[in-house]
Amino acid sequence: MTVVTPQEAPVADVPKSSGTRLVDRVFKMRELAILVVFLVMIAVTQAGNSQFLSEQGIKDLLLNATILVLVATGQSLVVITRNVDLSVGSTLGISAFAAGTYLQGGGNAVVAIALAVLLGIGFGLLNGLLVSLGQVPALVVTLGTLYIIRGVDSIWVGSSQITAADLPGGFVDFGSGGISAVPYLALIALAVLVATAYYLKHFASGRELYALGSNPEAARLAGIPVRKRILAAYTFCGALAGLAGAMYLARFGNVDSGTGNGYELTVVSAVVVGGVVFTGGSGSVYGAALGALLLTSVNSVLPALGVSSVWVLAINGILLILAIAVDRIVALRVASALKKRNARHG
Amino acid sequence: MRKSTLRRSCAALATATSLALALTACGGTTKKDVANEGGGAATAGKADPNAATKKGLTVGFLPKQVNNPYFTSADKGGEKALAELGSKYKEVGPSSATDTSGQVSYVNTLTQQQVDAMAVSAQDPGALCTALKQAMKNGIKVVTYDSDTTAGCRNAFVSQASAEDLGRTEVQLLAKQIGYKGEIAILSAAQTATNQNTWIDFMKDELKKPEYKNMKLVKTAYGNDDAQQSFQQTQGLLQEYPNLKGIISPTTVGIKAAAQYLSGSKYKGKVKLTGLGTPNDMRKYVKNGTVEAFELWDPAKLGELAARTAVALSSGQITGKEGETFKAGSMGEYTIGKDGVISLGKPTVFDAKNIDQFNF
Amino acid sequence: MADISLSRAVRWSALKRWDSAVGALLIVVLLFSFGFVDGFGNGLNLSFLIGNTLPIALIALPMTLLVVSGEIDLSVASTAGLSGAVMGALWNQGMAIETIIPICLLLGVVCGLVNGLLVTRLGLPSLAVTIGTLAAYRGIAQIVLGSDAVTDFPTQYLDFAAGRIGDTFIPYAFLPFLVLLAIAVVALHATPFGRSLFAIGASEEAARFAGIRVKRQKLLLFTVTGLMASLTGIFWALHYASARYDNATGLELSVVAAVLLGGIDFDGGKGTLGGAIAGVFLLGALQNVMSLQDVSAQSQIVVTGVLLVLSVLGPRVARQIAVLRAQSSG
Fold first, then answer.
1. What is the CATH number of domain C2-329?
2. Hey, what CATH class is A8-345 in?
């Protein structure tokens, strides 16, 4: 498994500017492509149903995407380091319930959100420690913690549930309210997204995540504290899953022991559709967020066009396969283009 | 190498297909050949209505899902009744409502533990049959409640109100709220949900009556009993049908999600919502004007009746035949209907006036 | 050089120890249950145990081979669900069951082929591909069968899938499984094909240079996995007498969990079928026993998770201990 992919070596030491710029452009293109697909889809729907882009419609679209965008942002950090966190759905569920229980007792909304985030951080740390210290495959470990956290959640929650009536009115109103068509929750998600993207691009520790994802061995030799970075990525992912839990509570006003069940596959799909590659080292959080927006919008577009909801699942799957297949084909093209260019320069 | 693989797989495909076709030509077992095994409820022996009520029995409750508030209150009702009757209660069950194989293995577990009777809410009408028949062969009485299996796989079914009543009254409730006029839609649970599908059929039938000639059912959407999906399906309905006047959601998860969406949107109070919900879930939405009225049976009563039926079966007071009657403690006397169905009674309608009297 | 061979030997022995450890644990659990758990040791319960574990065991066979060669297929449960759905839909059309079954198996082959082609021809990661087809196949199943639940399959087939031989603990369907198991064991552990899978899993590059036709082998594996998944789907529908589009949902995680518990290394190149099958039946037996002992479903989930984490940490710790011991003795 430590085999170095052969294509990488030649790219590294040739005139960087043109090569990296091309690669850069392709990645920008990648995000642009999703955006175009998304806009076309919205336009078609609007043409078929003029109600779709009403103020309420836009608000719904944004609100639906918010929670997935948050979790996908965290997940993409982990995937960039060539790992994965399958336990996000369980973490979301348990932190939503924790925040709800606290609020039920008449607690403060800010403290409740902090509580959810802290719980998420706790589980993120657990995953990160197991993966980085135990050096065991992330897929297996987080599959294990998926079960464990879900189990603990179900034992704790039992058959009780949090309903909107148990929550302070202001908290629930915050969940569905907003500035005209832009919901508050979407603003929070956007802020987190922009901050994360800025960190990844402009901080050394952020860029190191890419380095260790594209080649862990080389990253280690280059003196990057691999374990620390992986731990940080998992912790961040857990924190966002926790925050998403608090938002879920505000948005739906309803949490029981099944909340967030099966969410991991949606999140991973969103991240992959958004162009974050499973083998690590490439992709951006903007892409992941757009992927999330695209996937959740499919769920809103189909009913608005009167297409039966039975098609949603199949379409999601095909979108995912299409996205990775197109990615791969483009990557192969780019690689050959680079080779040609290098040959010319050399 | 690619070609050869492809060629080989094509050859395999061709062989298999021709084999299949050859078999068809020779005939085979088709749907027509399978005799209808349905028939009435499984009955054995003769009922003795005056037999003494046995004590010290163990009745196992197997809901569709443990941790589901609805089933918890139903099973609590059963527990209370069993305590009163001097018998033992236990509850087992899967943690997911779509884990059919899990439910089957819990039937087997109860069989192995040699309980005297079990009360089951079936996730699937067919899947539990083999296991339940196995249980009955071992002398265990089987009562289904809330959600039935095929009639031959249990002794009796305790229905939460007749499917017909539920379907028709929900349409009547909504019709009153929208003045018998306009487009309506249904937000159901899973496409495969047996209960919901039966109720929806009765709703459609009710809508055929002349007084509803100005009402039109435009769509049935499925939220899979998931808050988020039910949410989005509600949004979709409202976008697709801007003139929508009302929604019926015959599932406690669906109506709650739809109410939460409506109460935070511009449609609040304009689009009427009714269906099956629990008073505790819906209290907030009734008070804030999102929902006028909805209905449900009392799940605790349903569980209680299931427990009492199970004990009556074990005591030999009934066998599950049509026309037999038995006393269900303080709940009064019940008569077994066609196919071993026992109906709890008419559902209760909840509105702003009476909702505070209920707590479940 | 000496260092490498030492560490390899240590690895090997730790691994061997792990799958025998799982086997031993299975035997301990069985002995304990026979002795102390009421209602466990009789023929009926054991036949239930085996019958309910068979779907996982059936898929675990090709899954083990796949994981050994460094790939994974998460779409198996959806393929099974799709086969069941198509089976139900065709049956409703009035087609003969003897025609339907081969068609469904063929469908499984096609599903597997699609996965395999995407992975081998386009060079896509199997994890991402099969998460995609997981959704796609299940979605198609939903489109095909919709809200129907088909339950009226012919009794002789239902009896075969759900019944047991006389009063013994052996379900009828266990016998064909034993045959398949034998085939899989021979294929993996006693043929050049099997050895080539280990080689591919250990280092695909090296395997290719050694003249192994990596892509062809993988394509074959994915196709066989599809076939076995659809066989499982047919068995599932008959065993539970119910064909619905959501049959076997989530089964992929159970299979992966069981296989990994059995000591199949997720990085490929290591593992034995014996370990995998021991893992499958260990989870099955534990669940059965815990249910009989009134352990709640929620606690059972926790136990599964803990076992899974231990299964990856276990061999690692065992290896480290072995290394320490080798160093102190040398």
1. 1.10.3470
2. mainly alpha
